[in-house]
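=== Given protein ===
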Amino acid sequence: DGFISSEELQSALCKLGLLDEQCGKDCKSMINVYDTNSDGKLDFEEFKNMMLHSDSQIA
């Protein structure tokens, strides 16, 4: 649908081995940081900003 929900982000990060399956709260927090229009999901620009800043703000 062109957007990434916290559930989709969690699933992708778990499949890549980058996140424990029980860390859904962390995915919601990551999305909230970059969700500039507060719709609860990331569009392409928001996702791009998250990826570009992931080294400095997401740990």
Q: What stands out?
A: The mean pLDDT is 85. The chain has one domain: 6-57.
